[in-house]
């Protein structure tokens, strides 16, 4: 069950007007096409591990206990390609020699890692798990690319899962997870990995995205996966109090809600102040929604994400009585 929640954003804020001074874009274009007004950005020297530690600390505080026996970090921007970053997060948090590993499902990372954490508990491999979604996605972007720079921001969000009863508030699941590697090229950093370590073309080291195609897949897949989860949970659309989708684009969220037949006021949206923070976007939206009273104990919550890979998935829970740390 969900027992703790926390989020952290780097202090530096870059608004649309500041971006428009360096890129051929405008506040008006970014707001109307994406719903984004500003994003938080890491300063040089600040890393994914730094952000994950801050969010993790807040989630442990929210849970009221530091007693966790595994840490799962969802990230596509580990501090180094090897090793995984999760062990460094666990050490920095003083959690001892607990199990710690990364899950890379890019913007679907939170839902994938949540399923992984819940699975560790179901399998008896852990009683309590700290799950952090953290990405310094701006470090992957070509500063000259107006197709990606306005969209992404940096940040971290975290939850603590504990063993519990299936009918308790905060009980996790069902889950639905999918991928389609045939479409990997739609969102990719071509160089830097084992296939092509370096490239003479500097652009190959940056994240490239075919935005309009991604938009269509994101909407269709998030809706499809949400329907599957509702069916497995025995919910109809009218049972859903809140829909928390990956904060990629406000138009994607509205289009997904429309496909599902969900009213627009059931959407949890914080993209205006964060941009797309990849694996951190859903827990950061949860923190804001609890703090502003949008999300309340007992609410039936549908969660869905979509990301590079391609990957997508969804889950559902009844919201527990927790205060973000
Ligand atoms: N400022 C001004 N104009 C722009 C900008 C910009 N930043 N970017 C593109 N344009 C122009 C284009 O050149 C084009 O001009 P044209 O009509 O003269 O050719 C016009 O705006 C429309 O461009 P599109 O790319 O078709 O714009 P679209 O409405 O599709 O919005 C966007 C682009 C915001 C990227 C959208 O496609 C989107 O959000 N896609 C999904 C992205 C996404 O979800 N990514 C995250 C996936 S998760 C992960 O794992 C990383």
From TrEMBL:
Give the matching CDD domains.
KAS_III (cd00830)
Which residues are the active-site ones? 107, 246, 276
The enzyme's first-digit EC class, named in words, is transferase
Q: State the reactions this protein catalyses.
A: 2-methylpropanoyl-CoA + malonyl-[ACP] + H(+) = 4-methyl-3-oxopentanoyl-[ACP] + CO2 + CoA; 3-methylbutanoyl-CoA + malonyl-[ACP] + H(+) = 5-methyl-3-oxohexanoyl-[ACP] + CO2 + CoA; malonyl-[ACP] + acetyl-CoA + H(+) = 3-oxobutanoyl-[ACP] + CO2 + CoA; (2S)-2-methylbutanoyl-CoA + malonyl-[ACP] + H(+) = (4S)-4-methyl-3-oxohexanoyl-[ACP] + CO2 + CoA
Q: Which domain of life is it from?
A: Bacteria
Instruction: Copy the pathway line from the protein's UniProt record.
Output: Lipid metabolism; fatty acid biosynthesis
Which terms are listed as keywords in the entry? Answer: Acyltransferase, Cytoplasm, Fatty acid biosynthesis, Fatty acid metabolism, Lipid biosynthesis, Lipid metabolism, Multifunctional enzyme, Transferase
User: What cellular component GO annotations does this protein have?
Assistant: cytoplasm
Q: Per its record, what are the GO molecular function terms?
A: 3-oxoacyl-[acyl-carrier-protein] synthase activity; beta-ketoacyl-acyl-carrier-protein synthase III activity
GO biological process terms on file: fatty acid biosynthetic process; secondary metabolite biosynthetic process
**Region of interest: ACP-binding:** 247-251
The EC number on file is 2.3.1.180
Q: Does the keyword Cytoplasm belong to this entry? A: yes
Has keyword Transferase? yes
Query: Mind telling me which InterPro entries this protein's record contains?
Result: ACP_syn_III_C, ACP_syn_III_N, FabH, Thiolase-like
Ranges for the Beta-ketoacyl-[acyl-carrier-protein] synthase III C-terminal domain? 230-319
State where the protein is found: Cytoplasm
Q: Known Gene3D superfamilies for this protein?
A: 3.40.47.10
Q: Where is the Beta-ketoacyl-[acyl-carrier-protein] synthase III N-terminal domain?
A: 101-181
Q: What does this protein do?
A: Catalyzes the condensation reaction of fatty acid synthesis by the addition to an acyl acceptor of two carbons from malonyl-ACP. Catalyzes the first condensation reaction which initiates fatty acid synthesis and may therefore play a role in governing the total rate of fatty acid production. Possesses both acetoacetyl-ACP synthase and acetyl transacylase activities. Its substrate specificity determines the biosynthesis of branched-chain and/or straight-chain of fatty acids.
| PANTHER family assigned to the protein according to its UniProt record, in alphabetical order | 3-OXOACYL-[ACYL-CARRIER-PROTEIN] SYNTHASE 3, BETA-KETOACYL-[ACYL-CARRIER-PROTEIN] SYNTHASE III
The free-text domain remark for this protein reads: The last Arg residue of the ACP-binding site is essential for the weak association between ACP/AcpP and FabH.
How this chain assembles, per its entry, is: Homodimer.
As for family, the record states:
Belongs to the thiolase-like superfamily. FabH family.
Its protein name is Beta-ketoacyl-[acyl-carrier-protein] synthase III
Specify the species. Answer: Prauserella flavalba
The opening ranks of the lineage are: Bacteria, Bacillati, Actinomycetota, Actinomycetes, Pseudonocardiales
Which gene is annotated as encoding this protein in its UniProt record? fabH
